[in-house]
Amino acid sequence: MHVTVTTNPDKTELFSRLIDHADVGIYRLTIQGGVPLCAYVNAAIWRWRGQTPQTLHEPFDWLEYLHPADRVHVRQSYLNVCLMGRTERIEYRLSVPGQDPVYVTDIAVPMPDETGDEIAGICGCVQNITAQKAAQQELERTQLLQSLGRLIAGIGHEINTPIQFIGDNLHFLSEGWQTIRQCLESARQPDLSGEAFREGLAPGGL
Hints:
Elements: H1 11-21, E1 25-32, E2 35-41, H2 43-48, E3 60-61, H3 71-84, E4 88-94, E5 102-112, E6 119-128, H4 130-188, H5 195-201
Antiparallel strand pairs: 1-2, 1-6, 2-3, 4-5, 5-6
Helix pairs in contact: 4-5
């Protein structure tokens, strides 16, 4: 097998190939009027959204690709990157047409202009954490069920304790009532001396 080795490969081409085959999302944004406009996304982000990778001919509003509930806090985080010149770690959901959203974590880095004095935009690295989120949610559900089980067991114990107390005392009262009734029946007998009644009241009788 003959292998051709290129001594001076095109670094731009190599970098482009690496990005397009990476399992992480790469993007580049510019902020115009407070709106993060996307000028580039790599193939991974297109795949996550169930779309065919394509070349962007003009920037688009990146927030439109996000879950509506996450757009406000993500926009504020991007503005912080530009205003403060600091890296932000952001967690949000990418919307997927007709499917469940994709959970991602985004490392947004400020991108300076040619002079280095101003922030020209943002470049970011996005990781798909949907599987980790699903595992975390399953663990939380399991822990919730365990907590409910302990709560139900405790309630059952608290209910059984007074029921058992009442049952034991009813048994004692039943036995006592039987003895009292026997004494009362003996007192109704035509025994003027009252011996039978006194025998019922004697120790061991009641």
